[in-house]
Design a protein that fits this description.
heterodimer, A: alpha+beta, 5-stranded antiparallel beta sheet, 6 helices, 57% helix, elongated, B: mainly alpha, 63% helix
């Protein structure tokens, strides 16, 4: 049995059913991300002045990812336009570009995650003769068989010095060899580190999952799903439009995630 | 009597596909991308502006981000020329989203009597 209004618009709504479906789905997605943004507002506003981290993200990489995603939104639209004008070669080119850009976005995000997860804050015991009570930097060597760890970073005396990095110019990092006997506790900059990083990892990981999901759909249409083009090009074009709407939504979410997590 | 197969849908003048011209869309995409680049640049500049207090910077960045989102939704998602049903659906979404954020902000200072805050 043929599914009705998969290609042609319903007379009462003026649009085909899949488009209504994707907009309803996007409405639920707005509420999902809205809940996370409202959690961000609640925690951000409730944080005492001077305790919210600044400058913890690589703004250059964040900006690059914003442009990569914006470009991928454009290639998605052009892929749909190519289908509309019945130029399948152009569709393949533009959707291929979208896939590559999505992969680039995920690689950059993965690099950023790795940067956070290898960044450690090490609290030292009271009697240690180091240059400060806290060592902060990226792990270079952490072999459990050895009685020391090596990080590339710096010593500070107060945790407050690590909160606002934007106001600190010219931070000098050197390799620091710290005996395990002097380590009171050691924690990486993962989601467990503080509220800001918990929000950062939750929101960006959920967004990255959406990128991954969208990439799978786009990859399907670019690969095995293209058989439909030969049978029913209009139906295929509608599928490309629906996947494109999802992709633009993912881009929209990032438009707000970028300033909220990288700039504010 | 009109033919039911060619009847206009309720609330719409006619069922019409977007007129598609490849070069027109390509030009439009270039404009949108330039607009996005400008918006990102403005947000970066606003975040580093000296002599502005924090709320002013946040307001400026959010205004630019909303404008950027409007451009993307309007032109890339065709929201400037969508059907009435999509607008109705979005109006409901906006209402519930505003409620979600509004209730959170409203509840922010709503502590039970005697609560100790740090």
């Amino acid at each position: 049995m043929e599914i009705p209004y998969a290609v042609h618009p319903r007379p009462d709504t003026g649009i085909y059913n899949a488009k209504v479906g994707i907009w309803l789905f996007l409405a639920s997605e707005v509420m999902l991300f809205g809940a996370l943004f409202s959690a961000y507002v609640l925690i951000r506003v409730g944080t005492p002045p001077g305790e919210w981290p600044h400058g913890w993200q690589n703004v250059t990489l964040g900006t690059l990812n914003t442009l990569v995603l914006a470009l991928s939104a454009i290639t998605t639209l052009m892929a749909w336009v190519a289908c509309k004008v019945r130029q399948f070669g152009k569709f393949k080119f533009f959707h291929g570009c979208t896939l590559l850009l999505a992969l680039t976005f995920l690689c950059i995000k993965g690099f950023e995650y790795d940067d956070h997860l290898t960044h450690y804050e090490i609290h030292l015991t009271a009697g240690s003769n180091a240059g400060g009570s806290i060592a902060d930097g990226h792990m270079v060597e952490n072999d459990p068989k050895k009685d020391y760890v090596i990080i590339k970073g710096r010593f500070v005396n107060d945790e407050q010095e690590l909160i606002d990095l934007r106001s600190q110019k010219d931070i000098r990092e050197t390799e620091l060899k710290i005996p395990r006997s002097q380590i009171k506790d050691m924690q990486s900059y993962g989601p467990w580190h503080n509220d800001y990083l918990a929000l950062y990892f939750t929101m960006t990981a959920l967004h990255a999952l959406h990128i991954l999901g969208g990439s799978i759909v786009i990859g399907y249409l670019w690969g095995p799903g293209r058989k439909l083009w030969k049978v029913d090009p209009e139906h295929f074009t509608n599928r490309v439009e629906v996947s494109g709407l999802f992709w633009h939504f993912v881009d929209l979410v990032w438009i707000f995630l970028f300033p909220v997590l990288y700039l504010m | 009597m009109s033919d039911p197969n060619t009847a206009k849908p309720a609330g719409e003048p006619e069922v019409r596909e977007h007129a598609v011209d490849f070069n027109y869309y390509l030009r439009r995409c270039v404009y949108v991308f330039v607009a996005v680049v400008c918006a990102v640049s403005l947000m970066l500049v606003a975040s580093y502006l000296p002599h502005f207090d924090w709320p002013a910077k946040v307001a400026m960045i959010l205004v630019v981000a909303c404008t950027n989102a409007f451009v993307v939704a309007g032109f890339l998602m065709h929201l400037i020329s969508e059907k009435k049903m999509i607008y109705t659906l979005l109006a409901f979404t906006a209402f519930f989203f505003a409620g979600l954020i509004g209730l959170t902000v409203w509840a922010m200072q709503d502590f039970p009597a005697g609560t100790v805050t740090h």
